[in-house]
Amino acid sequence: MHRSSFAKSLADLKSRGVRLTPQRQMILRYLKETHEHPTAEQIYHQVSQEFASISMATVYNTLHRLTELGVIRELSYGDMSSRYDGNDSEHAHLVCEVCGKVADVPCPPIERFTSPELFAHGYAVGSYRLEFYGHCPDCQQSGAGQRDSELN
Amino acid sequence: MHRSSFAKSLADLKSRGVRLTPQRQMILRYLKETHEHPTAEQIYHQVSQEFASISMATVYNTLHRLTELGVIRELSYGDMSSRYDGNDSEHAHLVCEVCGKVADVPCPPIERFTSPELFAHGYAVGSYRLEFYGHCPDCQQSGAGQRDSELN
DNA sequence: ATACATGCAAAGTATTTGCAATAAA
DNA sequence: TTTATTGCAAATACTTTGCATGTAT
């Protein structure tokens, strides 16, 4: 038996002296338990059900703080709101350009696609992002495809 | 001698029946000639010098159209405005998280990092994006680092 | 000639901020 | 008790839209 990813992150944050308000715990738990890559809006909606008075400002505050602390990831896109990912292990994403759904895919270790030219620029690289864009199975069959709003 | 990337794209668009207004040509030329990955604002500013009456709406319209046509790429980020890339060949980016500067890096062919799991999801993948985040040489030495606004 | 692009100003959306009230440590 | 976080409302930043005018083909 191993502790949930949520419990692990929580302990980690506590040991780092991060203040753990109920709001933060709920947001973190939700992100660690879902695989949905929700938007701030969806997180707000979800967490509101248990904690009615929470505000969007707190949701955004918390998401930034957790991202900065490295326990979640922010995925930003040009034409839709950012999505948040509780899976902090190394992986890539499959993004549906029609409905916005995001799926996780395993990803080769970073060394696989780093080149000497990369280092030649002298950047101190801390992280990377690999994403594939396309149409998900649902949106391929339903000719027109559902909008970003409907499912995902 | 080979035709400039701009001339090539222009001919390509013409043959595809795309209406080539002076505004569009200027924006496209600028993007094909710079390696700066400018924002919409920067493009507007630059093109305004030759074509004073151009509007932001036209800049955005054009950027979307050109992206859709596949001759440029849009790079969106969470905390700053999108940047546009006239280099339509396969490559990755090095992004400075301090000043926002974006550099091109060669990138292995897509097959190098696709896995069976990727296909198992059934997505029809059309494109991908690979980005490395870190601190550029300039921002590493200048301890505090310049802000997104200053240089890049 | 005509469909499509432009430019303006107004609207929209996502996200951020200031600040007084509140609660975690 | 102290200092960071919350929640509200107002503000900002970026991007999009409606519509009358203009223009590339």
From TrEMBL, chains A, B:
Which domain of life does the UniProt lineage start with? Bacteria
Keywords per UniProt = DNA-binding, Repressor, Transcription, Transcription regulation, Zinc
- The UniProt transmembrane annotation reads none
Q: Has UniProt tagged this entry with the keyword Repressor?
A: yes
Provide the family line: Belongs to the Fur family.
In its UniProt entry, what is this protein called? Fur family transcriptional regulator
